[in-house]
Amino acid sequence: MDRERTAWAVLCSRARRSVVLIFTGPDVRDVRELAEAADVDFLQTRPGGRIGFSRALLVATPAMVRRARAEDVPKPALVDHDGIVDAFEGKGSTVWYWFNGKWIGLSGSD
Predict the structure, then answer these.
(1) Proportion of the chain in helix, strand, coil states, percent, rounded to 5
(2) Shortest CA distance to 42 belongs to which of 108, 96, 89?
(3) Strand ranges for 1-101 from DSSP E
């Protein structure tokens, strides 16, 4: 999960819990799970007054990662690859970044 490797992130919901699945290679069994949470934590009123699920994934460019705020983790000095924005639409986000062999969560700049 560095500049030379392509990984895919997918938001999946099962048994009323959502999780970010990270596929890091050609074998679909090579998957990591990140940021599991109850689906109910991401429900809000949508346009038209209906309740809807509002969790989304976006690409966090290196510039976005640099703008994110580190709270309880060391922030990378060199940001040279994309991360993942894990967003509660209209509310806030966490920027996930692969650093020193693990995923670190940074507060999004929203």
Answers:
(1) 10, 50, 40
(2) 89
(3) 8-14, 17-23, 31-38, 43-45, 51-53, 55-60, 83-88, 92-99
Three-state DSSP class for 65?
Answer: helix
pLDDT digits (tens, 9 = 90+) for 17-50: 999 999 988 888 889 999 999 999 999 998 899 9
- Is-contact 21 32, C-beta < 8 A? yes
Alpha carbon of residue 73 to chain centroid: 16
Coil, strand or helix at 40: helix
The residues spanned by each domain of the chain are: 8-107
pTM: predicted TM-score of the whole model, two decimal places: 0.87
pLDDT, tens digit, 9 for 90 and up, residues 61-98? 999 999 898 777 777 889 999 999 999 998 999 999 99
